[in-house]
Amino acid sequence: MKVPPCTVVILGAEGDLAHRKLMPALYHLTRDGLLPEGFTIVGVARRDQGEDRFRQAMKSAIAESNEAGPVDEEVFARFARRLFYVRGDLNDPASYRALRQRLEAREKEEPKPQGRLVYLSVPPSLYPAAVEHLSREAVAVRVRDPRATPWVRLIVEKPFGRSRETARELNRLVHEHLSEHQVFRIDHYLGKETVQNVLVFRFANSIFEPVWSRQHIDHVQITAAETVGVEHRAGYYEEAGAVRDMFQNHLLQLLTLTAMEPPSSFTADAVRDEKVKVLASIRRLREGGIDDHAVRGQYGPGTIDGRPVPGYRQEQGVAPDSQTPTLAALRLMVDNWRWQGVPFYLRSGKRMPRRVSEIAVQFRCPPHLMFARARVPELAPNLIAMRVQPDEGLSLRFEIKVPGLELALKPVDMAFSYAEAFGGAEHSAYETLLVDCMTGDATLFARRDEVEAAWAVVDPILDAWAAGPPAPFPNYAAGTWGPREAHKLFAGGAGRWREP
């Protein structure tokens, strides 16, 4: 894939995201020869330091990251020559003027027109001011033609708003200064190989698509479990909670890819059109019925990997009487022709027994079991599990006869592992998404209407939980799969929560 000449501007270059993900990703792309000559990175942050010190700090960040592997001195020397620094306060217009001057001076040195990719690696509270200053100081200006060169693009991290209303307001502000084709709302989950492979698995294999519907599927479970607690993000997490942090973006994105209709082509708008249709078809939860479809939880003290860990309220920076949910479980219904009557169960939480993200599609049991003499106490339904992380891959569970003279049945798994087949993922999610931004491919990024439609799904839950008293917290111990109340979401159904 050919990346055009460009400059990546990272606002918040001394922040956690830049250190852990962005710089290692850009270093790795440099190592693999995927970035063109003249490619430039300009970091902007408040720290008073020169470029040599900034480069050393980025080298340390890359070395400490598990994204890029050991630092190759020769590769880093090439990388460092592309790395520049501008000190600035992101609330101060003068900082953006200094940035523009640095960019213009740098771009004059290059023989080919340079695109600009501006990454808002800053707290969401700074988005409005940053977008306005970037535009007014001509760092990132509106480009009406998506094919124009040089180009200008803006990457915005989640959360994009705190509700549908605030997302609309942020979209309105962004579109005062930029065209929609210039805005890339990033969700790193969509850069993972297994997530992208959901569409290939469904639409490039004719054996699966005919059974991918209500006639054959009993329910779908989407889980994103973490063993870690709030760590150093208490300030953010106390404001966000589990639903804003994981559901409005990551889990609903996985749901749309699982449930969408085949797009007419694998282009950005064709794919995103179908995803928006799914979000619009999700049955809205109504006041008074939220508790039948949504459960919240907060972890207390417990044990992870044999060591004791504190409860959420004992974490540094968390209020001792915090009512913030660290886990949520939802049952959603997609009211369209393909999925009518098929529940989609979504679950995400912190301090759970294992770190795992997966999509599990459980099929209906056969209508008649002719193997009565096999004395099967319970027939395990067929299941397709798509593992997003860790150990990316897919597995198919089906029944077989156990060898021997007796008629006995047993479920077995046929598994595919990316690591075994291809030696693991060649590029991290952020590497994939950064290259897509540079080449202008928006397929794996959320469009304006997609973001607002996702908020419309979760807003009623957030409003109900904000208005009503929470369940007694904490209500699950660290190291467990969540509160018992989450199991009631399966009441009357044929399933139960998987423990992947």
Name its key features.
single chain; 500 residues; alpha/beta; Rossmann fold; Dihydrodipicolinate Reductase, domain 2; 2 domains; 20% strand
CATH architecture of the largest domain: 2-Layer Sandwich
Hey, roughly how much beta strand do the residues contain? 15-25%
- The SSE order reads EHEHHEHEHEHEHEHHEEEEEEEEEEHHHE
The oligomeric state is: single chain
According to DSSP, the number of beta strands is 18
Show unreliable segments: none
- How many helices does DSSP assign? 12
By CATH, the topology of the largest domain is Dihydrodipicolinate Reductase, domain 2
* Estimated helix fraction: 25-40%
Task: Quickly give the structural class.
Answer: alpha/beta
Q: Determine Rg (CA atoms, Å).
A: 24 Å
Biggest sheet statistics: 8 strands, mixed
Number of domains: 2
Straight-line N-to-C gap: 36 Å
Please state how the strands of the largest beta sheet are arranged side by side. Answer: 8-12-13-7-14-15-16-17
